[in-house]
Automatic annotation (TrEMBL):
<keyword id="KW-0472">Membrane</keyword>
<keyword id="KW-1133">Transmembrane helix</keyword>
<protein>
    <submittedName>
        <fullName>Amino acid transporter</fullName>
    </submittedName>
</protein>
<feature type="compositionally biased region" description="Low complexity">
    <location>
        <begin position="65"/>
        <end position="80"/>
    </location>
</feature>
<keyword id="KW-1003">Cell membrane</keyword>
<feature type="transmembrane region" description="Helical">
    <location>
        <begin position="6"/>
        <end position="25"/>
    </location>
</feature>
<feature type="region of interest" description="Disordered">
    <location>
        <begin position="64"/>
        <end position="118"/>
    </location>
</feature>
<feature type="transmembrane region" description="Helical">
    <location>
        <begin position="37"/>
        <end position="57"/>
    </location>
</feature>
<keyword id="KW-0812">Transmembrane</keyword>
<feature type="domain" description="Cardiolipin synthase N-terminal">
    <location>
        <begin position="14"/>
        <end position="59"/>
    </location>
</feature>
<dbReference type="InterPro" id="IPR027379">
    <property type="entry name" value="CLS_N"/>
</dbReference>
<dbReference type="GO" id="GO:0005886">
    <property type="term" value="C:plasma membrane"/>
</dbReference>
<dbReference type="Pfam" id="PF13396">
    <property type="entry name" value="PLDc_N"/>
</dbReference>
Length: 118
C-alpha cells in the first residue's frame, strides 16, 4: 500500500513539473482564461488542482488543421509519389561537393599528416 502512495505522489510531482514548465514556456498571448503569470501562481500554489486546471483550461488549443501546418491526405500522397528511389541513382548535372573520402587532395594531405616521413 505504501508503494501506491509513493506512485501517486510521483505522478502528482511529475504532473506539476510538466504543467509548470509548459505554462512557463507558453507565449503570454496564447494562455487562455487567465494571464500567464496568474497561471504560474495557480499551478505553484494549488499543486494537483492547478496543474489539471492548466492542462484543461489554460493551455493553448492545438488546432493543427486550422493553422494549415498539416498537409491534407492528398498532398501527403503526392509528396510521397515525388520520391522515386530510381532518381537517386542517376548522376546529377549540377556540380556537387565531394565528400572527404572522395577528394584525392584531401586524402593526400591526410596521408602526409599521418606519416610525415613518407
Amino acid at each position: 500500500m505504501v508503494w501506491l502512495g509513493g506512485l501517486i505522489t510521483l505522478v502528482t510531482i511529475v504532473l506539476w513539473v510538466y504543467a509548470f514548465f509548459d505554462a512557463l514556456t507558453t507565449p503570454a498571448q496564447e494562455a487562455r482564461n487567465l494571464p500567464k503569470i496568474l497561471w504560474l501562481v495557480v499551478i505553484a500554489l494549488f499543486m494537483p488542482v492547478g496543474s489539471i486546471l492548466w492542462l484543461f483550461l489554460g493551455r493553448p488549443r492545438q488546432n493543427v488543421a486550422a493553422q494549415g501546418n498539416a498537409p491534407s491526405p492528398a498532398q501527403a500522397a503526392s509528396a510521397a509519389d515525388d520520391l522515386d528511389p530510381s532518381d537517386f541513382a542517376k548522376p546529377s548535372d549540377s556540380p556537387h561537393p565531394l565528400g572527404p573520402d572522395d577528394d584525392p587532395e584531401f586524402l593526400r594531405g591526410l596521408g602526409r599528416r599521418i606519416d610525415p616521413d613518407d
